[in-house]
Design goal:
Elements (H helix, E strand, L loop, with lengths): L2 E5 L5 H10 L3 E5 L3 H10 L2 E3 L3 H5 L4 E4 L4 H8 L5 H4 L5 E4 L5 H14 L2 E4 L2 E2 L1 H7 L2 E6 L2 H11 L3 E8 L3 H29 L4 H8 L7 H12 L8 H18 L4 H15 L10 H6 L2
Parallel strand pairs: 1-2, 1-4, 2-3, 4-5, 5-6, 8-9
Antiparallel strand pairs: 7-8
């Protein structure tokens, strides 16, 4: 059993913190909206803290899963930030999908305080968080990683150390770039098949057994055909992630023509009122042009 804290009880953080309790860890939580933290505590045996600093006090590991770089700095730094509460020798694990730069920035500040830092973005969406089946991509010191991995395993089906600090975030960028192209290709394929008058259940059943198979096909092809987008990973989040990818590509010289184009397709979906649609809603542009 480990004393831990979890900062940020959103769609992902809420069930992740619950899995920590279910696996025998003592958990303190902080959420910007206190009512949500109190609701979490009603369902799980845990302590609600008034600030990130209070949550981190007395813990060995403090986790966070918030919105973006600015949100991350707001819960880590300052008088009420978690770094002010986490003791020397403690570890901070960040599950936010953020920039590699902010990961390096926080690791340097943590090192000055004797705090280990692991950047650990996740993939698997809401269902993965609820089922404890997330893929966690980590960057940081190997000894620190080995210390926290058994705890992360509470909600992960796979947890890998990719490299030094920032490598987790860069790997998540690769993940999102690949997904952008996959979902657009799947949308176009489903649209083509429907226009051709094919039985799409049979089409999906056939091609999902071959080279076109992917997680997106297995989980989203059918709902694309049905025009259902009220679940999964929202367009707003994907645009935030792709913006991080494009910004990093400007620095490292990578070319992302498809990812940049798909990002603009998502902008059109937002303009149509689909900000909270699942990312598979790319087919909406093709069916409703």
């Amino acid at each position: 059993m480990t004393n831990v804290a979890f900062i940020g009880l959103g769609i992902m953080g809420y069930p992740m913190a619950g899995h920590l309790v279910a696996n025998g860890h003592e958990v303190a939580v902080y959420n910007r909206t206190r009512e949500k933290a109190e609701r979490w505590a009603e369902s799980h045996a845990g302590r609600v803290a008034a600030t990130p600093r209070e949550a981190a006090e007395g813990t060995e590991i403090t986790f966070s899963c918030v919105g973006n770089d600015d949100d991350l700095r707001s819960v880590v730094l300052g008088e009420d930030g978690l770094f002010a509460g986490l003791a020397k020798g403690g570890v901070f694990v960040d599950h936010t999908t953020a920039s590699a730069n902010v990961a390096r920035e926080l690791e340097a500040l943590g090192r000055e305080r004797g705090i280990g830092v692991i950047d650990a973005p996740v993939s698997g969406g809401q269902a993965g968080a609820e089922n404890g089946q997330l893929t966690v991509m980590c960057g940081g010191d190997s000894a620190v990683f080995e210390q926290v991995k058994p705890v992360i395993d509470s909600y992960a089906k796979a947890c890998s150390l990719i490299g030094g600090i920032g490598a987790g975030q860069l790997t998540k960028m690769v993940n999102q770039i690949c997904i952008a192209g996959l979902v657009q290709g799947l949308a176009e394929g489903m649209h083509f098949g429907m226009k051709a008058g094919l039985d799409m259940d049979k089409v999906i059943g056939a091609i999902s057994k071959g080279a076109a198979q992917s997680w997106q096909m297995d989980n989203r092809a059918g709902t694309m055909v049905e025009g259902k987008f009220n679940f999964g990973f929202p367009v707003d989040w994907m645009r935030k992630d792709l913006d991080i990818c494009v910004d990093e590509a400007r620095r490292n010289g990578a070319r992302l023509p498809v990812a940049a184009l798909v990002d603009q397709f998502y902008a059109h979906i937002q303009a149509r009122g689909g900000r909270r649609f699942d990312t598979s809603s790319l087919i909406h542009l093709l069916m409703n042009d």
